[in-house]
Amino acid sequence: MIENHLSLLLVALPLLAAPIVAVLPNGRLPWALSTLVSWSVCYLAAWQLINVSSGQVISYELGGWAPPWGIEYRIDAANALVALIVSGIAALTLPYALKSVIKEIPHQQHALFYAAFMLCLTGLLGIAQTGDIFNLFVFLEISSLSSYALISLGKQRQALTAAYQYLIMGTIGATFFIIGVGLLYAMTGTLNMADLAQRLPELYEHRTIHTAFAFIMVGFALKLALFPLHLWLPNAYTYAPTVVTIFLAATATKVAVYVMLRMVFTVFGFSFIENTPTDELFLLLCVTAILSMSFYAIYQKDSKRLLAYSSVAQIAYMMLGIGLGSVLGVTATLVHLFNHALMKGALFMAIGALIYRVGSSRLEHFSGLGKQMPWTFAAIVIGGLSLIGVPGTAGFISKWYLVLAAIEQQHWLIVGVILMGSLLAVAYVWKIIEVLYFNATDEREQQNTAVKEAPLMMLIPMWVLVLANIYFGFNTELTVGTAEQAVKLLMPGAN
Predict the structure, then answer these.
(1) How many Cα neighbours within 13 Å face the side chain of 37?
(2) What percent of the chain has pLDDT above 90?
């Protein structure tokens, strides 16, 4: 069927575009081709999600080799939603990049930057699309290697250190994951996820299977920056070029959370998890992360680092749903996975607009800019309200489902932690708003002319995400509807 081939094209397009972009002359041409590819991929991802929204599963056999012998792309509601997030954020980030990249990255590196961006997009989409656990590792490495290169392009020297730190941590995570994959293959003789799901129940009692599960969980906990394995993330987000921070913050960790969902509930199965301490461990780590990382965010003096620590806390909210191990909990995870991409993408774009005008991400350099850049300031306010979880925003829907999932199991402590996390979010969001609007303009700004609003090419993508935060706070047909459909496939038979 034609849609099966289009699902392959979703990954092939950016992969084929990357070497073409790399050899184009530096200037607007690499940006234009990359943007065109990202829009095409976003259209294909939306079309794919529509096709699987009724419960249909798309299966594509690469090279005509039937699974489990060949590599299979297997798309259902869960990974179709993730593919839409990744491609949608890319389609908005690249128009924004036109001005930002010129400001932050040397002209002679523009073509290589967009080529690495295309490779990163390829890797993230490939992870979402594939139904083969080793092929997942291959795409993981493509996205990781390109991410290291993208982060290293930051203007400050610390960007190289941040990229190197991420490389070390990422390599350790990938090593753990591939060891787990090797152990699974040794026990089952297959790498196909659907085939693994059928063969593993007979092997649940083997210690090798438990060891493989532990290695895979630790490997991806490193990749998604789950506390306390998050040490690479604050520096990576702080010192990377703004466009890279926007894209990775809104997509990379979301893809890693999706892989955790797929491994836990599809490959190993709900019945396996029930007999392990996974739920309790996730809940303990998430509670600690939500509280400690939110406190860390409050005391940051750099806006990007503040939002980076906030991201570690928000990742914990997603994993909290997995830890609860219920239909409502996993639904909340998928909904927050989508909504957090919107809110953090909007916030980092707004911070990037401020950086574009003043050349710094330090909070003290933002004094008084809220009155001079009202559209950017309004975007930060609305994005911040969504991050807090105020009713009428997408963030409220996420936290509402998390609270319902916790109440369902009478985890009153979890309910309290979610509410406390929202109060702490008020504190660090207010810290940004206070500097922007209520602090007097610093001496450096008083001596110069008034700072202008961000360029239109930066404002439009930013406000698309801001308005999406409002829209999905009222209309949950796509987010909650798709999440509920995905949970039926991820957790068949679960209540």
Answers:
(1) 26
(2) 12
